[in-house]
Amino acid sequence: MLQRTRLLSVIAVIGLLLAGCSSPQPVYRTETFEPESPFVNWSTQEPPVACEVGKRALLSQGYRIDSANPTSIRGEKFFQPKADHGITLHITLVCLPSNVGTVLYANALQTRYELKSSSNSTGVSVAGVGSISLPWTAHKEALVKVGEETVADPDFYRRLFALIEALDA
Fold first, then answer.
1. Residue 124 in contact with residue 131, Cβ under 8 Å?
2. Burial of 105 from C-beta contacts in 10 A (0-12 / 13-18 / 19+)
3. How far apart, in whole angstroms, are the C-alpha atoms of residue 111 and residue 141?
4. Least confident of 15-29, 58-72, 140-154
5. Mean pLDDT, rounded, for 74-81
């Protein structure tokens, strides 16, 4: 009996170790915090002027401005690559003073949605008699968020900052 208990304990420990090995590595462990970043650009303008140019750049590309103050802009644009898929791209620009004028920080967040449908049938239950299901069904369709991630593509930010610099000239 004691040997069987030990054997089961060893098997349980091995199972836990194997389960731990198969779990994905936490994302924060892969974060590199490199000094060179695609999210940063410099301007010789003062922060409010640089942010105003950034706002005009986003507006020129069809972005809707969610919120704006002199040193921070948030814009969003909606895409529909397929009939049952939607994507929202949120861009935040922050303009802070630096020794050359302004440092612009940009961050884009991509949110993916899919159209999901559900149906319900109507049922009636009467005490003592039983229940009756009626054939009427209701279909509901809704866009459901299926994923969200920070855009980390350096080319995306190069294009954004190139447009801001072109409008600044």
1. yes
2. middle
3. 19
4. 15-29
5. 96
143 in Cβ contact with 113 (< 8 Å): yes
Helices (runs of H) and strands (runs of E) counted in the chain:
3, 6
Dist CA 3 CA 126 (whole Å)? 58
Q: Model pTM?
A: 0.73
- Residues in contact with 54: Cβ distance below 8 Å, sequence separation at least 6, in sequence order: 73, 93, 95, 104, 164
114, 147 contact by CB (below 8 A): no
Q: Which of the four pLDDT bands, split at 50, 70 and 90, describes residue 62?
A: very high
Distance (Å, whole) CA 85 – CA 115: 6
Rounded to whole angstroms, the Cα distance separating 108 from 148 reads: 11
Report residue 113 CA to chain centroid gap. 10
Packing angle between helix 154-168 and helix 47-60, nearest 10 degrees? 110
